[in-house]
Amino acid sequence: DTGVSQDPRHKITKRGQNVTFRCDPISEHNRLYWYRQTLGQGPEFLTYFQNEAQLEKSRLLSDRFSAERPKGSFSTLEIQRTEQGDSAMYLCASSFWERGATQETQYFGPGTRLLVL
Amino acid sequence: SQQGEEDPQALSIQEGENATMNCSYKTSINNLQWYRQNSGRGLVHLILIRSNEREKHSGRLRVTLDTSKKSSSLLITASRAADTASYFCATSRGWPQAGTALIFGKGTTLSVSS
Question: How far apart (Å, rounded) are the C-alpha atoms in residues B93 and A22?
Answer without folding.
Answer: 26
